[in-house]
Amino acid sequence: MADSTNVLALETPILPVLAQRRSPRAYSPQPVPPEALRQVFAAASSAASCFGEQPWRYLVGAQATSPEAFAGILASMGEFNQVWAKNAPVLGVSIAKLTFSHDGNPNAWARHDVGQATATLAIQATELGLQVHQMAGFSPDKLRAAFSIPADYEPVAVFTLGYPGDPASLPDGLREKELAPRTRKPLAEFLFEGAWPGLAEERYDQAPV
């Protein structure tokens, strides 16, 4: 069932699944079925990448089936994120392989490609009634220590994955963020045809999720 909370309203219509994608903090304790988990990562594998390298790697910890991995990922997060992320049924880490497999040279586009894969993953999750919340608030060093991540692989982001829950379960400040209207910059602020414009100012007042 599609998530109908805070569906994004844009000036130009887009696919409903894109408008329904959001970054919740309230999660249901309902486990994510193994087949659904496989589907979202299969979607990630469909993303484009430089030279077809597919530099994305994912570490996953599910409360129901891999609690030690779940705890290791949770421990890498900042305390602010741990408060709510501990209730998600699945935690994940996106990781970039920083060198090309065919020649060993640095892959300057690896992080970009990992972002593409994770965005595709998030859209597939939304189609299945799941939601993903990606975060920068984590310690790569803690992840390296906990999971023995090699030096030529870089943790890019951590994320929650699960079925959206009741916003009332969140502390007051987070509940407000969960229910705040979602907005985006108008196209004119980031779409430039023909030349780079002289913008008077950049706006940073938009809802982040």
UniProtKB/TrEMBL annotation:
Keywords: Oxidoreductase. Transmembrane segments: none annotated. Residues 18-163 form the Nitroreductase domain. Gene3D superfamilies: NADH Oxidase. The keyword Oxidoreductase applies. The keyword Oxidoreductase applies. It holds the Pfam family Nitroreductase. SUPFAM superfamilies: FMN-dependent nitroreductase-like. Belongs to the nitroreductase family. This is Nitroreductase family protein. It comes from Hymenobacter armeniacus.
